[in-house]
Specification:
Layout lengths: L26 H12 L4 H15 L10 E7 L2 E7 L15 H15 L4 E6 L4 H9 L3 E5 L4 E7 L1
Antiparallel strand pairs: 1-2, 3-5, 4-5
Helix pairs in contact: 1-2
Length: 156
C-alpha cells in the first residue's frame, strides 16, 4: 500500500502509526488511558479511563454519564456505538399531567430524526407509572436484580 504523505499545503503535522494510541484534548487524560493499556487493558478500558480523567481535568466540558461514540473492532467484527444519555424529570406539580409522556415522545422523535439506534431508560421498580409509560410507548423492560433497577429499551 502506498501513502501520499504530502498534505497539499504547508503543514508541520505528521502521520502517527502505532498499535496503542490514546488521544484526548488534555495530555493528562491521554496519559490515564495509556496507563490503562500498559496495565493490560484494551481500547475500551483506555477510553473509559481517559473519559473519567477528562471529568477532572476539563470539568466544564465533560461529565460522567455523557455521550459515548466509538468504533470498536471486537470478536472479528466492527461495531459502532452511538450512545447519548439524559435524565427526564418532572417537578411534583407536573406529575399526572402528561409531562413525562410528552418528554418521552419528543425524546423518541428526536432520537429517530438523529438516527440514534436505541433509547434506554432506567427506573426504580416501584415507579409503576414510569413502567406503564415505557410499556405504552413500546419499550421492552428487563429487571436488573443486582442494581434493584428496571431497564427499559426501545430499538429505533
Amino acid at each position: 500500500m502506498n501513502f501520499d504523505w504530502q498534505a497539499g499545503y504547508p503543514s508541520i503535522r505528521v502521520p502517527v502509526f502505532a498499535r496503542n494510541i490514546v488521544s484526548t484534548s488534555h495530555p493528562l487524560a491521554a496519559q490515564a488511558g495509556l496507563a490503562m493499556i500498559q496495565r493490560g487493558g484494551n481500547a475500551v478500558d483506555a477510553a473509559i479511563a481517559a473519559a473519567a480523567a477528562m471529568t477532572i481535568v476539563e470539568p466544564c466540558s465533560n461529565g460522567l454519564g455523557s455521550d459515548a461514540f466509538a468504533i470498536v473492532w471486537h470478536g472479528g467484527k466492527l461495531h459502532g456505538l452511538n450512545e447519548a444519555e439524559l435524565a427526564a424529570v418532572a417537578i411534583d406539580e407536573a406529575q399526572h399531567k402528561g409531562v413525562g409522556t410528552e418528554l418521552y415522545r419528543r425524546l423518541i422523535e428526536v432520537a429517530r430524526k438523529e438516527k440514534i439506534g436505541k433509547v434506554v431508560s432506567n427506573m426504580l421498580p416501584e415507579n409503576r407509572e414510569m413502567r406503564a409509560l415505557c410499556a405504552k410507548l413500546g419499550f421492552k423492560t428487563f429487571s436488573n436484580l443486582e442494581d434493584n433497577m428496571i431497564r427499559a429499551e426501545l430499538e429505533l
